[in-house]
Amino acid sequence: MSFPGAVLAALAFASMTAVVPIAARELAGFRLPESVEVEPEGVALSLIGAHVRTYLFRDVSLFALYAAERPASFDALIASSAPKRVAVTILRPTFAAERFRTGWREQFDAVLSEAERTRYSKEIAEFIDTFETLNRGETITFDFAPGKGVRFSIRGEPKRVINNDEFAAALLGVWMGPRSVDRELRRKLLGVDTN
Hints:
Oligomer: single chain
Strand order of the largest sheet: 3-4-5-6-9-10-11
Number of strands: 11
Order of helices and strands: HHEEEEEHEEHHHEEEEHH
CATH topology: Chalcone isomerase
């Protein structure tokens, strides 16, 4: 086989291997499951996108979005009648509870209008109050189920249910909505062009 032929054959073989999919599901040293099952609905969701958020050049958290199917847009994600999950794994050695709370207040202030913050003031207070200090590798899961709002768990332990679909949509909007706090996070999670 000629040299160019050998190179093409090697490239063709490489494109058939699982190297690319594996790399796409492993970030910051953590392996993301390709699918998860959301209970009590018993619905299997697939990994749609993932992204490592950084601050001052340091990895802070690993986000992963799971949904029944890849959404065409943020609006399609919200409109879907199927559950969805956002899993957030801590990458810092320690992430203090007060830092969580301050960060969330800032994010809600940046994304929600004053009227929305007033409308969801009870839900925001409950949401922020639930956070506790977490260490590297510990995960928070947010499960969104239409008609049931959002429920979230810390380290696999159920912590709170906020039964308000509008607040649940606003929360998803912080990460993936038109006014997302992080455009790259929005793009990587949704896997769609956000320009």
